[in-house]
Amino acid sequence: xYMLIAVIVLGVAVLVLVVLLLRGQKPATDPQSALLxxxxxxxxxxxxxxxxxxxxxxxxxxxxxxxxxxxxxxxxQFSASSKLIADVTERLTKLDDTNKRVVDVAGELRTxxxxxxxxxxxxxxxxxxLNQVLENVLPPDRFKLQHKFKDGEIVDAVVVLEKGxxxxxxxxxxxENYNRLVESTNKTEQESLAKAFKADLKGRIDxxxxxxxxxxxxMDYAFMFIPSEAIYYDLLVNKVGVTNTxxxxxxxxxxxxxxxxxxxxxxxxxxxxxxLQGLRSLQIEEQAKExxxxxxxLGRHIATYETFMQKLGGSxxxxxxxxxxxxxxxxxxxxxxxxxxxxxxxxEPLLLERPTQDE
Length: 359
What we know:
- This protein has 8 helices and 5 strands; from the N terminus they run H-H-H-E-E-E-H-H-E-H-H-E-H.
- The chain is of the alpha/beta class.
- Strands 1-2-3-4-5 form a 5-stranded mixed beta sheet, sandwiched between helices.
- It starts with a helix and ends in an 18-residue tail after the last helix.
């Protein structure tokens, strides 16, 4: 567009220059010269017009191409923007779903916290964990929940062993003093809470030991199930909470004095696997004894059968002897007949062999 304007301005300037030159000269008296001048001016005007049209056509084509490129660029940018908006919208939707799940989890954690704050509900939760571990490891006929003893005492669960033996398992969840101990920052208070927590655990160990009743078919030891791995870990590393108070005496007290084995969900599963393998070994042993007993019975039956076969063999031998003797007598009779009738022998006795005991 700017080039067209420049050409037009240039053409006008040339015309003005020509006019000024013509005005500055004297009028031509030669008609032929005037005619040539007019023809030159017309030719110049035509050339300018052609140049203008060509430039206008080029500019129009250039503008059309630029417009097409701009349109394609705008479409690409619009498509990219639409895709970006859709992606952002999808991410925002996922983020919203994630936020909802986080809110749901937070609500469940608050519910769990409320449950853990209630001692009775906490006990129910511990029994639930115990039940889940038993169901995941043992067959249904190898454990029993809420086993009742003769005096009315109820243990949370028992593992059913061979020959009517049972292994008591009780769930204990002492958490109040432990949580206060973990949250405390005061050294003196920590020591006091650690002693209170150890006293709680000692009381739970004593409660578990009362379920060891060999007279009622229990083993001479019992499991004390602690649903919290954190508490069990503190007992295992010989300290309570953030203090350096030793917990080794609790484990030794439970095992040596009360015959109580303290277990967590993880270690309890390991113990149950050992018990399960023992039960399978006992089952295999019982089956082997039964097979041995049946093989012995089969041996006795074979011995009896052999006796009867020997008797039958003896009877058959006697029968064969009688049969052969009878044939010999028949041959004698045939000889007598031959002498009397002066004929050839007609009886040829078939002798049999006696069966031997080796056969």
